[in-house]
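Appendix C: a fully annotated inverse folding record. The material below is reproduced so that readers can follow the format used throughout the book. The structure is listed first as tokens, followed by the designed sequence.
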């Protein structure tokens, strides 16, 4: 049988451990490191065992201090080894070397299968999961699971909604659309009246399209760690094509823009009123505030509404983004590491600091459903109770998604096809067919049997 490179890497590359260690400097104190002596924080209870952790949340030092003060079983030595890709690169180096990883690592939910298939993180279902299971929704747990295995503790998420400009809606007599058909009709009305673009389809946001395809009933991937050689890939079914044809049609009609998001150009357009809506997630107010949105000429104009539905009679709630704490296979004591993973960012003080300062959208139900969070009057939205009206119901109804163990390739390939839709060279349906072909081919090259 053809050996799967993704899995084989976890075995073969360990043999190069000494070489990789030398190439990386051979010092765990450089570039993050996993030694308990390399702590950003101070360990207050020096007689307790120590677990090392990599994480990049902005308020991590406070969170770790809170945990260490309250714990009588374990202390956490925290290091910021970089955000997102920077941390993942260092983790991958440690996986290759077979040493240098922390005991616990912060990972975005859609990256968990990538590291699970390499056996770089462990199933924590037997290390206290049952004790905290009811603190999170089924959808939150599904996002950090691969098959029946639980490979992370959910911390924050991104239930989706539709952010919009009240001034533009009022000027053109628009009410928040409840369906995507209404969204297109409103976009056309604004355009016909000489108004701005209604939204934006950035080629660099394939995760949004994946979420909207899920919302429409698609199931892009079927993958279970119990059968790691097999994967189901369905990227060009009718539901997926409908979504891409819909957005491609909006582009063709000039109703939405095609500017890549998370760029200075896009933010300038948001501030300048170039877009009436922003299809995004609950973390967006924090991102937008940090980018300077809502502080100048566009102050006080923002509101949010539930995400439009494909079928109003059967609403489906989806998610974009979110992170978790995973226990690595290099942890010397996985059970002790799991205690830290389950306990860090789970106390009231840390959760409150996180959501009040727009660091996280909490998935812990003790915070998510707390009256002070539900009823919070969000400053970015001019005091609107956005959690109560939009994001908490979406989070509670979210049922989870299945991610792929080669997510980086999938999103890159999706990005390429969305760019072609945007420049008008292909239709949405053609993009779906090309994406299916590219991802299936890649999966087979990696040794998967595609079902």
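Designed amino acids, in order:
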């Amino acid at each position: 049988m053809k050996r799967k490179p993704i899995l084989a890497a976890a075995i073969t590359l360990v043999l190069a451990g000494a070489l990789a260690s030398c190439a990386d400097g051979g010092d765990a104190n450089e570039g993050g490191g996993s030694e308990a002596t390399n702590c950003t924080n101070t360990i207050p209870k020096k007689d307790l065992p120590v677990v090392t952790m990599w994480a990049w949340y902005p308020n991590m030092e406070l969170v770790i201090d809170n945990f260490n003060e309250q714990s009588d079983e374990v202390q956490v030595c925290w290091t910021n080894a970089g955000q997102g890709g920077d941390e993942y690169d260092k983790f991958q180096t440690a996986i290759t070397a077979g040493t240098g990883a922390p005991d616990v690592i912060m990972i975005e939910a859609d990256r968990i299968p990538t590291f699970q298939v390499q056996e770089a993180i462990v199933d924590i279902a037997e290390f206290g999961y049952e004790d905290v299971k009811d603190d999170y929704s089924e959808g939150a747990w599904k996002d950090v699971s691969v098959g029946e295995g639980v490979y992370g503790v959910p911390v924050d998420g991104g239930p989706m909604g539709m952010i919009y400009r009240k001034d533009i809606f009022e000027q053109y007599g628009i009410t928040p659309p409840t369906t995507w058909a209404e969204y297109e009709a409103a976009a056309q009305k604004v355009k016909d009246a000489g108004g701005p673009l209604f939204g934006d389809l950035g080629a660099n946001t394939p995760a949004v399209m994946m979420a909207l395809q899920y919302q429409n009933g698609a199931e892009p991937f079927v993958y279970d760690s119990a059968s790691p050689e097999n994967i189901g890939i369905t990227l060009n079914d009718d539901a997926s094509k409908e979504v891409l044809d819909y957005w491609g049609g909006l582009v063709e009609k000039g109703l939405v823009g095609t500017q890549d998001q998370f760029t200075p150009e896009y933010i300038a357009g948001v501030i300048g009123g170039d877009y009436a809506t922003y299809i995004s997630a609950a973390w967006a107010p924090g991102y937008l505030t940090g980018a300077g949105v809502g502080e100048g000429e566009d102050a006080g104009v923002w509101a949010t509404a539930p995400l439009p539905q494909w079928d109003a009679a059967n609403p489906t709630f989806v998610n974009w983004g979110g992170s978790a704490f995973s226990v690595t296979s290099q942890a010397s004591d996985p059970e002790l590491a799991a205690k830290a993973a389950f306990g860090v960012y789970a106390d009231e003080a840390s959760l409150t600091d996180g959501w009040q300062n727009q660091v996280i959208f909490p998935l812990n139900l003790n915070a998510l459903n707390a009256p002070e969070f539900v009823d919070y009057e969000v400053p970015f939205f001019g005091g609107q109770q956005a959690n109560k009206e939009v994001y908490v119901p979406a989070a509670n109804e979210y049922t989870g998604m299945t991610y792929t163990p080669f997510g980086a390739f999938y999103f890159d390939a999706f990005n390429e096809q969305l760019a072609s839709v945007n420049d008008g060279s292909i239709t949405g349906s053609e993009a779906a067919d090309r994406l299916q072909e590219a991802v299936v081919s890649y999966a087979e090259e990696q040794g998967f049997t595609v079902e």
